[in-house]
Design goal:
Number of strands: 8
CATH architecture: Beta Barrel
CATH topology: Elongation Factor Tu (Ef-tu), domain 3
Helix content: under 10%
Number of helices: 0
Structural class: mainly beta
């Protein structure tokens, strides 16, 4: 059984810190570029501008020991378990980002709206179609 997570690329974004990042892409996300490693070029076949996709990321600055948070960082709200929130702090910090492709140039995919910080590792891309 292979339990190794493969990084397929990295996000390039003008967002530099967690404090600068919107809570969700629909809350002020920007255009960003998913730079896919050359070895995964064939896997991009079928993607095109206008496609709605899901980007899965590894939220590399997350606190993996965190089990409870104030929802949306609002300390006036009682703490809840991270599995009942969208907090990036969690045991396995996998980010899920519904985005639309705005352009593709080789292994560079421009998407929006993105809320992840620059350098965030990409672990998968899936179509948002059923």
């Amino acid at each position: 059984m292979n339990t190794t997570l493969e990084i397929i690329g990295y996000l390039r974004s003008e967002i530099r810190t967690r404090d600068d990042a919107p809570k969700q892409g629909c809350e002020g996300g920007i255009e960003a570029t998913a730079e896919i490693k050359e070895e995964y070029r064939e896997a991009l076949e079928g993607l095109e501008p206008g496609s709605e996709i899901l980007l899965f990321t590894w939220l590399h600055e997350a606190d993996r020991s965190c089990q409870k948070v104030h929802p949306r960082g609002d300390e006036s709200r009682p703490k809840r378990g991270v599995f009942s929130t969208r907090s990036p702090d969690r045991p396995n910090p996998i980010g899920l980002h519904p985005v639309t492709i705005t352009a593709i140039d080789g292994c560079k995919i421009k998407v929006r709206p993105m809320e992840a910080i620059d350098g965030t590792p990409l672990v998968d891309i899936k179509t948002d179609q059923r």
